[in-house]
Amino acid sequence: MTHFLFIIGKILVSRMIIHFQQHFLVCSLVSGKKMSLKSERRGIHVDQSDLLCKKGCGYYGNPAWQGFCSKCWREEYHKARQKQIQEDWELAERLQREEEEAFASSQSSQGAQSLTFSKFEEKKTNEKTRKVTTVKKFFSASSRVGSKKVPPERVEKIMDQIEKYIMTRLYKHVFCPETTDDEKKDLAIQKRIRALRWVTPQMLCVPVNEDIPEVSDMVVKAITDIIEMDSKRVPRDKLACITKCSKHIFNAIKITKNEPASADDFLPTLIYIVLKGNPPRLQSNIQYITRFCNPSRLMTGEDGYYFTNLCCAVAFIEKLDAQSLNLSQEDFDRYMSGQTSPRKQEAESWSPDACLGVKQMYKNLDLLSQLNERQERIMNEAKKLEKDLIDWTDGITREVQDIVEKYPLEIKPPSQPLAAIDSENIENDKLPPPLQPQVYAG
Questions:
Q1: Do residues 191 and 317 lie in contact, with contact meaning Cβ atoms separated by under 8 Å?
Q2: DSSP string for residues in 159-206
């Protein structure tokens, strides 16, 4: 059993290294398969065939694999590697022949003591082939551990546990490494989503009515799940967050329409959730899942379907233009530059069954705008009144000074001396004496 776990661990580590090397050879979605995302009045549409491997194997494709599934991508990658190896081999043989011809005389005495380059490479290739054959036989359908077959479910469970242990330990080294441009892509998509904050659900034809409390709760949970993806370390756990987010979206659509959601309903809503949530390090998380998650999870099943749709949503956001939203190029440029917003214009023409809370919010915004205009007018009038008061005060001061200078005030001395206050009192002797202080014994 220990030997069994050791071999599985080696395979998992090898898979991680291979996926990490493949990143440097991967082209963008545009250079590979072009997704036929179409935005019409009926909503954003994506053919299900565009989600599948472009080689026609029936599995889900991935933009990071040029539209192939992981199996077909490995085959294409293996062919490219074999071609490169063959070219390197031919070059090495040619250089070896030239070296042998140039130093034939000096190497004649040492030829018996060393293997030639070709024999060494042949031995190395045979040894590699033998090891690969042994591992393939070990995991083949006819392989046995003792006298019993190894159930596929048990192998999958063990590989999940090993993946969890290894990726938890290596997370800080392999997530968004410095040797890649993942961080640059994260900043670009984050800036792009912020620039598209004005996009409304009506533009994307999102069939979700957030005025319904239950639907609003589902939308909040979906946004929480897609944001929570960045806090997970294991690729399988990150993929589970995408799956939970997608299920909340399907439930929100089902409650709104009172019928099961379709693929044409799901993708626009997923785009709306991504725009509204703006998940942190979105591209890094997608690349991390692509590189290190069990490829079988991305090729089939609901996890693979939801992850492929998320990749399509991100690709749509990156390429979103005026035609995708049924807007004129002039309006699109004005919205992107922040000169105006379509929300205020649409608030006046919303139908009666539109979200009352949102309508009230924009009414309040209009009221605040009107109050701001009134305040500006009052401030201008107050400044004008202050200036008028200053001018009036200065004018009165000048007039008073002119009058004083023109008619100076002359104070003449009195003709008769002023009489004393008690000059007419003839009974001064009858005035009471001044009060004397009295001492009282306490």
A1: no
A2: HHHHHHHHHHHHHHHHSS-TTSSHHHHHHHHHHHHHHTTT--HHHHT-
Span 347-367, average pLDDT: 68
Strand partners of residue 145: 148
Percent helix, strand, coil in the chain, to 5, is 70, 0, 30
Burial class (CB within 10 angstroms; exposed 0-12, middle 13-18, buried 19+) of 60: buried
Three-state secondary structure string covering 409-422: CCCCCCCCCCCCCC
Which two tokens mark 213?
Answer: 């409390």
**Residues, the chain, total?**
442
Cβ 362 vs Cβ 343: under 8 Å: yes
Condensed to tens digits (0 to 9), the pLDDT of residues 120-173 reads 556 656 655 655 555 445 445 554 444 455 577 888 888 888 889 999 999 999
- Secondary structure (3-state) at 43: strand
Query: Which two three-digit tokens encode residue 394?
Result: 């200065």
pLDDT at 419: 61
User: Which strand (E) or helix (H) includes residue 40?
Assistant: strand 38-40
- How far is Cα 290 from Cα 269, in angstroms, rounded to an integer? 23
Strands 38-40 and 43-45: antiparallel
Contacts for 193 with CB less than 8 Å, ≥ 6 apart: 274, 275, 278, 317
The DSSP symbol for 349 reads T
Owner of token pair 């991508």: 73
- Please choose, from the candidates 22, 133, 131, 118, the residue with its C-alpha nearest in 3D space to the C-alpha of residue 78: 22
Is 156 or 399 the better-scoring residue by pLDDT? 399
Q: If we measure between CA atoms, which residue out of 203, 176, 175 comes closest to residue 39?
A: 203
Q: Give SS3 for 45.
A: strand
Q: Rounded to whole angstroms, how far apart are CA atoms 278 and 311?
A: 14
Torsion of CA 214, 216, 219, 225, to 10 degrees: -70
The DSSP string of 65-98 is: GTT--HHHHHHHHHHHHHHHHHHHHHHHHHHHHH
Q: Give the angle 166-168-170 at the CA atoms, nearest 5°.
A: 65
> What pTM value is reported for the model?
0.55
**For residue 255, pLDDT beyond 90:** yes
Q: How many Cβ atoms from other residues are within 10 Å of residue 66's Cβ?
A: 20
Long-range contacts of 73-78 (CB under 8 A, 24+ apart): 73/22, 74/18, 77/22, 77/25
| Pick from 302, 74, 295: nearest CA to 163 | 295
